[in-house]
């Protein structure tokens, strides 16, 4: 959806984009991704998106890793910056709940 929204042609074949193009798109993506309501994502959600994208790229023919490959250094730094920004906006809060006891089920 993001690639289509920014007018990227051939968005359905994103997994086959050249590595440099993917890196540049990810730089923009980390700072612009938001919910349908236009709100910032939580840090946990952003992490889940990163890992889902990484899994898809690892399974592809090129076997890319956006978290470790040096070809993605710009987007790795952008992700860290976006994560810091979310933390500063209070989006890194994790709600912990009490353990559910078997008798409470």
Structure explained in plain terms:
This protein is mainly alpha-helical and 105 residues long. The protein has a domain at 19-90. The protein is 49% helix and 0% strand. The protein contains four helices and no strands. Helix 2 packs parallel to helix 4. The longest helix has 17 residues, at 43-59. The protein is globular. The termini are far apart. 14% of the residues are buried.
Low-confidence stretches: none
Topology as a string of helices (H) and strands (E):
HHHH
DSSP summary, beta strand count: 0
Overall helicity: 40-55%
Question: What does the average pLDDT come to?
Answer: 90
Q: Quick one: overall form?
A: globular
Q: How is the biggest beta sheet arranged?
A: none
Q: Which structural class should the secondary elements be placed in?
A: mainly alpha
The fraction of residues in strands falls at under 5%
Q: What gap, in angstroms, lies between the N and C termini?
A: 39 Å
> Any idea what the radius of gyration is?
16 Å
Alpha plus pi helix count: 4
Tag the structure with descriptive keywords.
105 residues; single chain; mainly alpha
């Amino acid at each position: 959806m993001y690639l289509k929204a920014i007018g990227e042609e051939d968005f359905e074949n994103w997994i086959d984009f050249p590595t440099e193009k993917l890196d540049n798109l990810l730089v923009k993506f980390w700072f612009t991704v938001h919910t349908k309501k236009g709100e910032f994502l939580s840090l946990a959600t952003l992490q889940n998106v990163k890992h889902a994208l990484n899994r898809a790229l690892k399974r592809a023919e090129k076997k890319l890793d956006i978290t470790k490959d040096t070809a993605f250094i710009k987007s790795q730094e952008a992700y860290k910056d976006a994560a810091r920004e979310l933390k500063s906006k209070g989006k890194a809060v994790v709600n912990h709940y009490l353990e559910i006891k078997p008798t409470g089920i």
